[in-house]
Design a protein that fits this description.
By secondary structure, the chain is of the alpha/beta class. It has twelve helices and eleven strands. It has helices spanning about 15-25, 40-45, 70-75, 80-90, 105-115, 150-170, 190-200, 225-250, 255-265, 265-275, 305-320, 320-329; strands at about 5, 30-35, 55-60, 95-100, 125-130, 135-140, 175-180, 205-210, 220-225, 285-290, 295. The chain has an eleven-stranded mixed beta sheet, sandwiched between helices. The radius of gyration is 20 Å and the shape is globular. The two termini are about 30 Å apart.
Length: about 325
């Protein structure tokens, strides 16, 4: 049985929510799950649940990479950490995928150094699903390469198209280039050159520039940008979603009539929060372009989000994503 490895010690809510999420996912995911971390801690948590022990194994790792650790030093010196052990499982083939909510920089560094890039991939990219009016748009790069070259964005577009087509299930997904205007002459030198390359690239359905304000419309399936721009977009949307929910709640509680309206509309608000503002449906951010699957779950992931990331891995494995990206490039 193929294995999905999970960093039991990574994230703000580790190990409790990580293990709870793995137990939840084990009920529906057909693959075996390997919880990597301090085995005494993991076993202590697992005893709280009635789960199929045949679907969950424990892999001991005595060290933990903390959020305050410097990425390169952490990967180099904490070789018995849950993150490094998990990444080595992917490299050796003992696991088909690895999920971690831990130190993002360390995970990206370790994934590149330990798992390695697919032949032909210049820079792997972190892809994340952004909620839109029509579903979700895949954005690459969300945090891997702050300084990108135009040709990197072309590869992001190709990898993103493969991912969207196979995971979301839409053929010939549209691709947009994040820019400060819709006109092709807008943007800095890197973006202008990327536009020209994307226009000429085969195998992608490039539709032109996409302004930041239009991302949430959902008219474009895949958007590409350097990681500086991508991470700013991601963090802004996270902050805005939290603020807008608080503002709506404040206004609804401001008077008797609005409170009654809120009560009547409570079902709609719950669906809104679930479908657009929670991590469960998104799962995690896959690191595309590697020889194996590495997924970055949000640092504050709860059990539902962890389970979502694990289920996302199942679809990635089933569709043979690594080989399909390799063929595309």
């Amino acid at each position: 049985m193929d294995v999905i490895a999970i960093d039991a010690m990574g994230g703000d809510n580790a190990p409790v929510e990580i293990i709870k999420g793995a137990v939840e996912a084990s009920k529906t995911v057909k693959y075996k799950l390997a919880l990597v971390g301090k085995e005494d801690v993991i076993y202590s948590e697992l005893r709280k649940y009635d789960c199929d022990k045949g679907k969950i194994q424990v892999v001991n790792a005595a060290e933990v990479i903390e959020n305050c650790d410097t990425p390169t030093d952490a990967i180099k010196h904490k070789k018995n950490s849950s993150m490094v052990v998990g990444l080595n499982m992917v490299r050796s083939g003992d696991a088909k995928a690895f999920v971690s909510a831990g130190n993002t920089g360390a995970l990206l560094t370790g994934a590149t150094v330990i798992v390695g890039r697919i032949k032909g991939v210049q820079r792997p990219a972190l892809g994340t699903m952004l909620p839109t009016e029509k579903g979700h748009t895949l954005m690459l790069d969300a945090g891997a390469n702050v300084d990108a070259k135009p040709e990197y964005l072309v590869q992001y577009a190709k990898m993103g198209s493969v991912y969207y087509e196979n995971v979301v299930g839409k053929n010939d997904p549209t691709v947009g280039l994040v820019n400060i205007g819709a006109e092709r002459e807008k943007g800095n030198a890197m973006v202008k050159e990327a536009y020209a390359l994307l226009e000429q690239a085969e195998g992608i359905n490039f539709t032109g520039n996409t302004e930041a304000r239009d991302i949430t419309l959902g008219d474009v399936d895949v958007i590409v940008c350097d990681a500086f721009v991508g991470n700013v977009i991601l963090k802004f949307m996270e902050g805005f979603s939290k603020s807008i929910l608080r503002i709506i709640k404040k206004e609804l509680m401001a008077g008797t009539v609005s409170k009654i309206g809120a009560l009547i509309s409570s079902g709609a608000f719950k669906r809104l929060k679930k479908n657009y503002f929670e991590y469960d449906n998104i799962g995690g951010a896959p690191f595309l372009g590697l020889k194996g699957l590495v997924v970055k779950a949000h640092g504050s992931s709860d059990a539902g989000a962890v389970a979502g990331a694990i289920k996302q891995c199942e679809k990635f494995i089933d569709t043979d994503m690594v080989n399909k990206i390799a063929e595309k490039l």
